[in-house]
Amino acid sequence: MSESTCSQRVRLALAEKRLDWESVLVPPGGLRDQAYLALNPAGVVPTLIHQDHVLVESRIICEYLEEAFPAEPLMPLRAFERYRVRRWTKLFDDKLHLAIFVLSFVCWMRARYLALPDALRASALPGMTDPVKRRIAENLLERGWDAEILRVALRQLVSTADALETALAESRWLGGDHFSLADVDLLTVIQRLDELGAGSLLDERAAVAGWLDRSRHRLSFALAFDTWRNEETARRHSLLANEAAERFAGLIASL
């Protein structure tokens, strides 16, 4: 699944560390294939295989890459800067991953799941081993733009954008002078907001907009994002973003 933020964060880390890798796109239906579930019982992406080791969970994969391949480090040397990086990566894991999932589901996924036969939808819906995420997906499927969890997610993302603006007004990157795992994680979030049509969050946050522009000019961005887009998907997402932009602007203004 090329649009998975968890896959994007691992591809960014691989690219930043200048590692060679081969990747296989798993279509949404493929997440429930027994062959894939044997590798990743949660039925999610990404899964990394290195030296016969099967690695799951994108956060831990990124940390593994940092330790297994110390060249091109993505963690600062100083302890306090490492602390700052870990606060951002913890925020991604604890709150932002779910928040961006909520927005992505409403904009990109909901119509696709509604079109599936009931039995197939029940099997394919996110949250196969996570009852909380499954319940959220069911609520979003039923209520769409009217789901209260959408507003909760937007509040979290607005709060995060404010925190980013403060941090990036003081340093070039989130960990200090160098691009780090914190930038990897938050880039997937802010890039997704823009792709979904919620880019109005950046209108009055110049430091975040500048950081996003710098990040997009890194070679890793092209390798993690651009090379994984096909024209049909990009066109469909652009149309959906255009439809969603006014809705998002109104919701954000009302928070």
Quick overview of this protein structure:
This protein has 255 residues and is mostly helical. It has helices at residues 5-16, 34-39, 58-68, 79-114, 118-124, 131-143, 148-168, 181-196, 206-216, 219-224, 231-254, and strands at 47-50, 53-56.
If you had to describe this structure to a student in words, what would you say it looks like?
- The model has no long low-confidence stretch (mean pLDDT 92).
- A two-stranded antiparallel ribbon has the order 1-2.
- The chain is globular.
- Helix 4 runs antiparallel to helix 7 (148-168) and helix 7 (148-168) packs across helix 9.
- It starts with a helix and ends with a helix.
- The chain has helices spanning 5-16, 34-39, 58-68, 79-114, 118-124, 131-143, 148-168, 181-196, 206-216, 219-224, 231-254; strands at 47-50, 53-56.
- It is mainly α.
